[in-house]
Amino acid sequence: LQLVTSGGGQVQAGGSLRLSCTHPGFSMDSHAIGWFRQAPGKGREMLSCISSRDDSTTYADSVKGRFTNSRDNAKNTAYLQMNSLKSEDTAVYYCAVTRNLHECIVYSGPYHYVLKDVDFGGWGQGTQVTVST
């Protein structure tokens, strides 16, 4: 399974892009969907997750308030709206789905577990986002 990510490109700092994530033969509507990025020479960073149960979302501090994660199950597509882009947002962006979880945070009694990139699969080729100053 490889999800298809599109919508990347080159944009000036302060600009916006909207990324899309889909798969033609796999229904994502019962899976949480995550967005990630990897900049040159850096590790993969988890940006956001959206639940399949109630569309609740989580965001990394680096993108909170600037990026919005959403999904349209009728179109089997997830979106990452990226506003106020900065040069440090330059990276290859990926989406991925959970293997068998609906939620981005799993609660068990007094404990909770926030999903990490190891909980996701279906990594595709990604899409390049380049932000110029």
Description:
The chain is mainly β and 133 residues long. Helices cover 0% and strands 49% of the residues. It has no helices and 13 strands. The strands form three sheets. Strands 2, 4, 5, 6, 9, 12 and 13 form a seven-stranded mixed beta sheet that branches. Strands 1-3-8-7 form a four-stranded antiparallel beta sheet, with no helix packed on it. Strands 10-11 form a two-stranded antiparallel sheet. The protein is globular and about 45 Å long. The chain starts with a strand and ends with a strand. The model has no long low-confidence stretch (mean pLDDT 96).
Helix-strand pattern: EEEEEEEEEEEEE
Helix-strand category: mainly beta
Shape: globular
Mean pLDDT over the residues: 96
Say how many strands there are: 13
What is the gyration radius calculated from CA atoms? 14 Å
Proportion of beta-strand residues:
over 45%
